[in-house]
Specification:
Number of helices: 1
Order of helices and strands: HEEEEEEEEE
Strand order of the largest sheet: 6-3-2-1-9
Number of strands: 9
Radius of gyration: 14 Å
Distance between the termini: 31 Å
Largest sheet: 5 strands, antiparallel
């Protein structure tokens, strides 16, 4: 089980790595409001979500993920327990991806983000059904 105490250190390391590698892509020159490092079951960072709070986000994979031909990855978030999990988008592969038009409230500190492996076309129920590939909690960015 991944402890939440690992998240701040992993987030700082991955942000430094991303900046050091010069990974580009700007979302309308706006800084992310919340950043989440998504870890697998072993605690290995797999992806980073940058949520801009305007129904756009960027997902960067930090490690390649193999997706079977009959499956897709689906990105989820949990804005609140009352609202339940909400899909942000489907992903066919592990490239840098812009997520947009997911019509959710602004992101919050400690908001859950996760990637699941779902059948082609996405979850048949509208809720996560497949195995969780990676998950993490958002942290507000301060500048």
């Amino acid at each position: 089980m991944v402890r939440r105490t690992v998240l701040p250190a992993a987030a700082a390391a991955m942000l430094a790595l991303a900046a050091g590698l010069g990974i580009g892509w700007q979302a309308a020159s706006v800084e992310p409001r919340v950043v989440a490092i998504l870890l697998d079951d072993a605690g290995v960072p797999r992806a980073m979500v940058e949520d801009f709070g305007d129904d756009t986000a960027r997902l960067r994979f930090l490690a390649a993920v193999e997706v079977p031909d009959d499956r897709v990855m689906q990105v989820w978030t949990l804005p609140s327990a009352d609202m339940g999990p909400r899909s942000m988008d489907l992903l066919p592969d592990s490239r840098v991806t812009r997520l947009d038009d997911f019509n959710l409230p602004p992101p919050a500190n400690d908001q859950l983000y996760e990637i699941t492996l779902e059948p082609e076309g996405g979850s048949p129920t509208g809720l996560p059904t497949g195995p969780i590939l990676a998950k993490g909690f958002g942290a507000f960015q301060t500048y």
